[in-house]
């Protein structure tokens, strides 16, 4: 899939809407659920997804057995999965439009602060 701004923005939106609670975002580089998972989920703000794109596609489609990583193949289309894979591959060099989408606040995935 081409790494044009439209695909990267679509991938950023998908990541923001589905992945940030476990894998982090710019506002929360260490995700809310990261340490509660066993094994802990990779934190992509500090440790980029560095597997080949075809492996990331497979993981997104099928999940990882014996971990909290679900398979998204029945929820995301193949095109959406490739947009997400392309976004992850270009996370450090996003064009301005995709970066804006990525950093926008998303109330659906925001976690309320702990009350004391």
Task: Describe the SSE topology.
Layout: H1 5-18, H2 20-23, H3 53-62, H4 78-89, H5 96-103
Describe this structure in words.
This protein is mostly helical. The chain is 41% helix and 0% strand. It has helices at 5-18, 20-23, 53-62, 78-89, 96-103. Helix 1 (5-18) packs parallel to helix 5. The longest helix is centred in the N-terminal third of the chain and has 14 residues, at 5-18. The protein is globular, with a radius of gyration of 14 Å. The model has no long low-confidence stretch (mean pLDDT 89).
Summary tags:
mainly alpha; 5 helices
Structural class: mainly alpha
> How many beta-strand elements?
0
Helical content (DSSP H or I, runs of 4+): 40-55%
> What is Rg?
14 Å
* Poorly predicted regions: none
Compressed to H and E, one letter per element, the order equals HHHHH
The main pleated sheet reads as: none
Straight-line N-to-C gap: 47 Å
Q: Tell the overall outline.
A: globular
The mean pLDDT is 89
Query: What percent of residues are in strands?
Result: under 5%
Q: Give the helix tally.
A: 5
């Amino acid at each position: 899939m081409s790494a044009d701004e439209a695909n990267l923005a679509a991938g950023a939106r998908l990541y923001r809407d589905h992945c940030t609670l476990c894998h982090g975002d710019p506002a929360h580089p260490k995700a809310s659920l990261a340490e509660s998972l066993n094994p802990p989920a990779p934190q992509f703000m500090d440790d980029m997804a560095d597997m080949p794109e075809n492996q990331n596609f497979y993981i997104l489609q099928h999940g990882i057995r014996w971990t909290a990583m679900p398979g998204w193949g029945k929820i995301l289309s193949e095109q959406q999965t490739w947009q997400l894979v392309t976004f992850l591959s270009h996370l450090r060099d996003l064009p301005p439009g995709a970066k804006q989408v990525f950093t926008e606040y998303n109330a659906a995935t925001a976690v309320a602060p702990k009350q004391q």
